[in-house]
Amino acid sequence: MPRITFHRVAWAALAVLAALLAVAWFVPTSSFLFLPNAAQPLDGKVTVQGGKDPDKRGGVYWVDVSVRRATWLERLAPFLRPDGATMVPEHALVPEGSSFADRRKVSLADMERSEEVAAAVALQAAGHDVTATPRGAIVEAIDPAVPAAALLKAGDVIVEAAGRPVRTTGDLRRAVSTVEPGESVALRVRRLGKHVELTVRTVPAPDDKRRPVIGIRIAQAADIDLPVDVDIDLGDVGGPSAGLPFALQVLQELGRDIDRGYRVAATGEIELDGTVAPIGGMKQKVLGVRKAGADVFLVPAGDNESVARRYAGNLRVIGVENFQQALRALTTLPRK
């Protein structure tokens, strides 16, 4: 029989270790990584009927976040993750009973609605007569682990919460915030043409145990009729967080000097009343804006603004609560 030597044992151990590392490097886990992407200009992505070619100086920029499965090695060794990455557990991104593909479909639908709402808000700000009637908050998905899963259905439109009318998604968030996590909130929903009264128990938000949530994904339900054609095309990018930069770029296309010669990046979901709602992935977005060399970054005021300032470096961050506030903030910038 061949003699077992230290060198053979060492080489065998190294081979096994190499195989394990290879598996750990390529085999994905159930967790996801949020990764920064460089902000991109919206020039050429937004066209408005009767619009003008914007000044090539400066520009309005949008920013998104890449999402992919983390490998076992990235999960076990955080220092091996790409710069700016954040690990996110699967349940925080994909509700139980659904898939990443389902989430992708919802995200693309969110983008389509965001484009329409942003165009309506911008055209109204430009003085156009826009027919935009908010109809409530439509339920897109429900976390099966929350109490609401037994009562709400995808496609329900919430029109009242805690005794307050709900016309926009912001209305619903504000109404739910009037109770404590674990307390119930009365809802009135429109389902298949009829109104249904429900009482739903809230749960603590995954990212802030002090904040009550119902545990649903919502979007703006509205009837919108634009007086001019507006085309916004970011390809297969999804999500509602580019609403604010979309609205800014529409005004830029209409001849307004929105950027004032600066590279103006922006993020935030925009609602029909002009409210700028918070979004996710802020750490990655501010890093992506810095990578693009932008001068100014408009973000939703509050927690998003706090996170953005933490990673901004020398980037100027401006927190805004609504579209008009964003416009006022930009007009105070000295022209470049």
Your description of this structure?
There is one protein chain. The chain has 336 residues and is of the alpha+beta class. It has two domains: 31-129 and 228-331, Ribosomal Protein S5, domain 2; 131-222, Pdz3 Domain (Roll), CATH 2.30.42.10. The chain contains nine helices and 20 strands. The chain has helices at residues 6-26, 72-76, 90-93, 100-125, 169-176, 243-253, 282-291, 303-311, 323-331; strands spanning 28-36, 40-41, 46-48, 59-62, 65-71, 86-88, 131-142, 157-161, 164-165, 184-191, 194-201, 203-205, 208-213, 216-225, 230-232, 263-266, 269-270, 276-277, 296-300, 316-320. Strands 7, 8, 9, 10, 11 and 14 form a six-stranded antiparallel β-sheet that branches. α8 (303-311) links the parallel β19 and β20. α7 packs across α8 (303-311). It starts with 5 loop residues before the first helix and ends in a 5-residue tail after the last helix.
Question: Summarize this, please?
Answer:
This protein has 336 residues and is an alpha+beta fold. Helix content is 31%, strand content 31%. The protein is globular.
What labels would you give this structure?
336 residues, alpha+beta, Ribosomal Protein S5, domain 2, Pdz3 Domain, 2 domains, 6-stranded antiparallel β-sheet, 5-stranded mixed β-sheet, 9 helices, globular
